[in-house]
Design goal:
With 118 residues, the protein is mostly helical. It has one domain (2-117). It has three helices and no strands. The longest helix is centred in the first third of the chain and has 46 residues, at 2-47.
């Protein structure tokens, strides 16, 4: 019995560490969105001809997306932690993942169009 208990504790510890790594991936994603926002909003307009406001708007949108990534990552991390204490599973919110994916794709396409158009 003692061996089984140690095995269960070890599995729980590995699962908790995996959840922490996943949370840190969300944070890295948010930081990447911040960097893209800075690049699109400040650096690209310096190199492109034409008005800067479209690039600034896309840059702000990427920064907002980064904030949403960080917030959703924290919510997700907390939901997984609560589920682990109950011995349950916490599936991700499919609507949130779809929304984040669509917003990211649209912002990427808009950025491409703006760069090509200038």
């Amino acid at each position: 019995m003692a061996g089984e208990s140690a095995e269960v504790r070890d599995a729980s510890r590995r699962t908790e560490l995996a959840s922490e790594r996943t949370y840190m991936a969300w944070v890295r994603g948010s930081l990447a969105a911040f960097a893209v926002g800075l690049g699109a909003g400040k650096l690209v307009p310096e190199l492109a001809a034409g008005p800067a406001w479209p690039f600034e708007a896309v840059g702000v949108a990427f920064v907002v997306l980064g904030v949403v990534f960080a917030a959703y990552g924290l919510v997700r991390h907390r939901n997984v932690a609560k589920a682990l204490t109950r011995g349950a599973h916490a599936p991700p919110d499919e609507r949130a993942l779809l929304g984040l994916t669509l917003v990211t794709a649209v912002l990427g396409l808009v950025t491409i169009v703006l760069v090509v158009a200038t």
